[in-house]
Fold this sequence. Notes:
Helix content is 79%, strand content 0%. By secondary structure, it is mainly α. The site of hydroxy diiron-OXO moiety has 8 residues, from α1, α2 and α3.
Amino acid sequence: MFNKNIETALNQQVNMELQAYYTYLAASAHFEELGLKGFAQWMHHHAEEEMTHAMKIYHFIHSRRGHVELFALNAPRQDWSSPQAVIEDALHHEQKVTASIDEIVKLARAEGDYATDSFMQWFVDEQVEEEEVVDDLLQKLSFIEDFKPGLYLLDRELAAEAVEVTPVEQ
Ligand code: OFO
């Protein structure tokens, strides 16, 4: 029998990952409207990653014969004062996700659910990478500040990376 506390925590995590999908999709749309296509693709790629995270947990709940419960999503923020503000929001979001994942690991250990503990280790590692990637971009933006040609070059760099990582359909 799947532990109810773990099931609830995992369902909440599915919601958090879907909320991240929605948040990054809104950021992608914002960059698209600014004409920053590289940033838009970068965000779109990250939005899709969040969907895969949500589905990974979704399938895990089913594999334990648990019940998947989908909660409502909040409307994401859709307006920012600068590209830096968007990426700062993304970093705060990732930090919240990391804290939430750590809580699930703690709960799994407290409940003696070692299968969930083991499953969640993938997310623990993934969050290290997620925070690093977002923080790297934030650092680059802090070098650029308001220097428009720098933003243009960074946008081109992100567009080139997006082509390498995945053929994003437009
Ligand atoms: Fe799912 O890692 Fe970002 O939020």
